[in-house]
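Structure in, sequence out. Go:
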C-alpha cells in the first residue's frame, strides 16, 4: 500500500517523508524531472493548468505501484475531483500534516530556496482562502491527521510509522 502524505504548502510533507524512508516518491521532484525545469519556471512558462495535468498523470502513475511506498504530494493535489477519487480509495493510508495558517505562511514566506507560485501570485487574504478550502478537502481524505505545529519531523515520522 501507499502511505500518502497530504497537506498545505510548507507543512513538511517532503521532509517527513525523508524521515520515513530514503526511497520516498516526491511528486514535485518527479514532475520537475519529467519537464526538466523547476516547478516555479514551469508555472511561469506554461501556467497552472498545464502543471495540474502533469500532477494528475503523476498521481495516477504512482498510485498504480504495488508495494509499501511513501508518496509526498504537492499541496494542490486535492483540487481535482479525479485526484480526490483516487485518493479516496486510499483513505486508510493517507496522512494529513495539519498546521495553522500563520505558521505555514511564515514558513512559506521565509523559504528562500523555493518560492511557491501560488504564494507569489496571491494576496495573503486570498492565500488564506485557498488554505481554508484545501483543509476541508484534505480532512475528508485522510484517516490520520497529525497536528505538526509543535512537532519535529522525527516525531511526526514516528507517529506515521505506527500506522
Ligand atoms: C502547490 C504546492 C507545491 C507545488 C506547486 C503547487 C499547491 O508543493 O506542487 O507549487 O498548489 O499547493 P508543496 O506543497 O510541496 O509546496
Amino acid at each position: 500500500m501507499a502511505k500518502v502524505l497530504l497537506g498545505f504548502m510548507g507543512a513538511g510533507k517532503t521532509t517527513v517523508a525523508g524521515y520515513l524512508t530514503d526511497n520516498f516518491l516526491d511528486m514535485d521532484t518527479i514532475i520537475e524531472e519529467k519537464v526538466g525545469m523547476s516547478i516555479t519556471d514551469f508555472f511561469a512558462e506554461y501556467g497552472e493548468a498545464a502543471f495540474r495535468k502533469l500532477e494528475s498523470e503523476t498521481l495516477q502513475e504512482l498510485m498504480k505501484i504495488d508495494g509499501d511506498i511513501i508518496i509526498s504530494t504537492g499541496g494542490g493535489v486535492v483540487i481535482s475531483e479525479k485526484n480526490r477519487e483516487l485518493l479516496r480509495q486510499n483513505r486508510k493510508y493517507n496522512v494529513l500534516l495539519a498546521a495553522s495558517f500563520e505558521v505555514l505562511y511564515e514558513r512559506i514566506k521565509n523559504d528562500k530556496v523555493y518560492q511557491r507560485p501560488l504564494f507569489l501570485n496571491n494576496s495573503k487574504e486570498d492565500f488564506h482562502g485557498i488554505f481554508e478550502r484545501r483543509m476541508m478537502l484534505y480532512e475528508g481524505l485522510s484517516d490520520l491527521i497529525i497536528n505538526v505545529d509543535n512537532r519535529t519531523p522525527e516525531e511526526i515520522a514516528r507517529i506515521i510509522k505506527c500506522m
